[in-house]
Amino acid sequence: MNSSVSFPPIRIGQGYDVHAFGEGDHIMLAGVRVPHSRGVLAHSDGDVALHALCDAMLGALALGDIGVHFPPSDARWKGADSSRFVSHCNEMLRERGWQVGNVDITVICERPKVGPHALAMRQKVAQLLEIDLDRVSIKATTSEKLGFTGREEGIAAQAVALLVAA
């Protein structure tokens, strides 16, 4: 490796998460309780948006993934609020001299509809990351009735995070 090469002080990470639907009357999405006819099967609260965001943040700094830092085998994380994971990841990157520039999260499902909750989700993520609202994008797409999300067997999310040197 040539250490004399200068790179811009930015890092980009991407994340993906998926959970199957199970019993329940709501799901957590980007830290917001969203009414739904099903819940999710997960060790923590199963917030696919926040899990994907954590993986994007961790990936940008080559720090592994959410399972490394919050293993499902650890009883401490049983039913845990995924907001704690995001706050911890944000603290880790700040300790290393980085801050979030912006994030873009896409939720993939047929239902529930994300649009009515998108602003609240953006506000929650901005609060957790301690950044301005205009640096958080949350949107949704369907899979046109194809695959497990199309059959409404589960929900997925992907996220991209841009980190900048603090």
From TrEMBL:
Record note on cofactor: Binds 1 divalent metal cation per subunit.
Sorted UniProt keywords: Isoprene biosynthesis, Lyase, Metal-binding, Nucleotidyltransferase, Transferase
EC number(s) per entry: 4.6.1.12
Xref: HAMAP family: IspF
Binding site for 4-CDP-2-C-methyl-D-erythritol 2-phosphate: 17-19, 43-44, 65-67, 141-144, 148, 151
Molecular function GO labels: 2-C-methyl-D-erythritol 2,4-cyclodiphosphate synthase activity; metal ion binding; nucleotidyltransferase activity
Site feature Transition state stabilizer, where: 43, 142
Catalytic activity reported: 4-CDP-2-C-methyl-D-erythritol 2-phosphate = 2-C-methyl-D-erythritol 2,4-cyclic diphosphate + CMP
Family note: Belongs to the IspF family.
Protein name in the entry: 2-C-methyl-D-erythritol 2,4-cyclodiphosphate synthase
Record bears the keyword Isomerase: no
